[in-house]
Amino acid sequence: MKEQISLPCEVVQDILPLYVEGDVNPGTKELVEKHLEECGSCRDFLQELKNEEPVLDHIPEHLPEPDTFKKWLRRFRVGAIAGLIVLILAAVGIGVVSYKAGTVAEKETISTKDVVRVLKKAGLSLKASPSPVIDPSECVLGDVQPKIYGIDEEGLGQLYIYEFNSTLARRNILESIKSMEDDPFTSSQIPSVAYAAKNMVIVAVLNISEENWQSDYDKIAPMTQALGKTIFYDLNQGEKWVLYGEGKDWEAKLVVSTYEEWWTGEDGYKKFKFYMTKTPLVNYKGNSEEIKDISYSFEYLNGKSTLTEEDYHQGNFDEEQTGFYRGSPLYWGIYSGTTHTVDKNETGKFSVQWNGEEESFELTLREP
């Protein structure tokens, strides 16, 4: 008779996220369940995974420590443990299905649990907040009340997560918010920024005082940037590319960020919008202090934007551009979009006039 293999706790805890989603085959499931019968620690971890979406009405007085990114990495022990999993599963002739945050983006409708899981994988330490900055009953959107999570230990940031039953329902609600007075977050005069992802609305609320604005914002800014970046890439399947060109005196680039939103309309047909942000950047190869008079333009996708001396800024040409990670107030309708997509290989054009000089050149896709 073949001896039953016993899995160590580290391996079981690596497999449990897949087990919860039903992404393990029968052989693996049997081994995991055998271990769970004998191990209280792994049963507790399983319960923690299943309870990633707590309800405010049932929050215990003493919340467990948040599952930080550091703990997550420690559990997975990428090198040694991953290798051990491969050896064990190969020995018993079984395997597991890959579990990626990105698979969430392929669904038309996602859940609060999906959002929390993806954000945790990105390193955000989310836990249900027992002390909302704004009472959830005062910021209902349509008939949806938010679930509220803290994103830092000092209580400087909270996420208000709204789960609509469809992307169409979410779009209809946001389109009904026409002004600042209709936006419960802006009207409360508490700093906030909103994001849309399929059938979800995610509002980051900053609990920052005027006296400590700069120091508190510096603490929370990395988390809000990670939030926007994760929503853009992992929930909306966003894409970024750069068009670049240079001449004798200038170099220029256009940072383009895009994503498509699909939903089923009231007529039952699939619909979509294409969202795009373009960030123009320029760099003068000479002494920028010599520039007295300047105007320049970018042409791309049948559109032209002209900028003047007031818009000219030198010094951020090589920095990562994060504007497309940002959301907006709810009353701006989150984003505006078009009904056509673009070819990233299409070229652009840059033209500049300064100090009586002129220069123009083509912008082409820059390989990463």
Give the N-to-C terminal Cα separation: 55 Å
The largest sheet has its strands arranged as: 8-7-6-12-11-9-10
What best-fitting shape do the alpha-carbon axes yield?
Answer: globular
Number of domain modules: 3
The protein's oligomeric status is: single chain
Number of contiguous helices: 8
Report the order of strands and helices. HHHHHHEEEHEEHEEEEEEE
Tell me the fraction of residues in β-strands, as a range: 25-35%
**Number of E-state strands:** 12
| Class inferred from helices and paired strands | alpha+beta
Helicity level, as a percent range?
25-40%
CATH class identity of the largest domain: Alpha Beta
The CATH topology of the largest domain: Protein Transport Mog1p, Chain A
What is the name of the CATH architecture of the largest domain?
Answer: 3-Layer(aba) Sandwich
| Major pleated sheet | 7 strands, antiparallel
Task: List low-confidence stretches.
Answer: 53-102
Over all CA atoms, what is the radius of gyration?
25 Å
- Mean of residue pLDDT? 78
Keywords: Membrane, Metal-binding, Transmembrane, Transmembrane helix, Zinc, Zinc-finger
Domain DUF2275: 70-294
GO molecular function: zinc ion binding
Family: Belongs to the zinc-associated anti-sigma factor (ZAS) superfamily. Anti-sigma-W factor family.
